[in-house]
Design brief:
Rossmann fold; alpha/beta; 139 residues
Length: 139
C-alpha cells in the first residue's frame, strides 16, 4: 500500500508528470491516504471558503472544496486506529521526533500500522521516523 501525503496528492491532482507516471507503474498496489491528510486538506479548503473576500472568491473556494471531497472519496483512507495508536506511543518515546510535529507523527503512525509506504516530498521530517518507508515521486 502507498499512502499519499497532501503534497503528493496536490501534484497528482494537478497531473504532475512524474507522479502520474509512478502511479501507472503501481497499478497493482493499493493507493490511498491517511485520515489525518484528508482532514488537513478539507480543513484548508474550508478555511479558504470562510476567508474568501468576494462572491467570486467564495464560488471558487466552494468549487475547490467540492473537487477535493470528490477526489478524496475515490481513495482508500487509512484511519487512525488502535494499531496506529500503538505506533504513536512508540514514536512519542523518541525525543528527536517531537520536532517534526504532531500531524507528521500521526501520519507516520498510520503508515507504520498499515505497513505502507508514505509518498511525500517531506523527506526531511519523515526520514527521521524509524522503520517508515518513504518515497518522493515529485522530484
Amino acid at each position: 500500500m502507498h499512502l499519499f501525503d497532501s503534497d503528493t496528492l496536490s501534484h497528482l491532482w494537478a497531473n504532475h508528470e512524474l507522479v502520474v507516471e509512478r502511479l501507472r507503474r503501481c497499478e497493482d498496489t493499493e493507493i490511498g491516504t491517511t485520515s489525518i491528510t484528508k482532514s488537513e486538506i478539507l480543513r484548508t479548503r474550508c478555511e479558504n471558503l470562510l476567508k474568501a473576500a468576494s462572491p467570486n472568491d467564495l464560488v471558487r473556494a466552494q468549487q475547490r472544496l467540492d473537487r477535493s471531497e470528490r477526489k478524496l472519496a475515490e481513495l482508500t483512507v487509512a484511519p487512525f486506529d488502535e494499531a496506529a495508536g500503538r505506533e504513536l506511543s512508540q514514536l512519542e518515546q523518541v525525543k528527536k521526533l517531537k520536532k517534526i510535529g504532531r500531524a507528521h507523527l500521526l501520519i507516520a503512525s498510520i503508515a507504520l500500522a498499515n505497513n505502507a509506504t508514505l509518498v511525500t516530498r517531506n523527506l526531511k521530517h519523515f526520514r527521521q521516523v524509524p522503520n517508515l518507508q518513504v518515497e518522493n515521486w515529485v522530484d
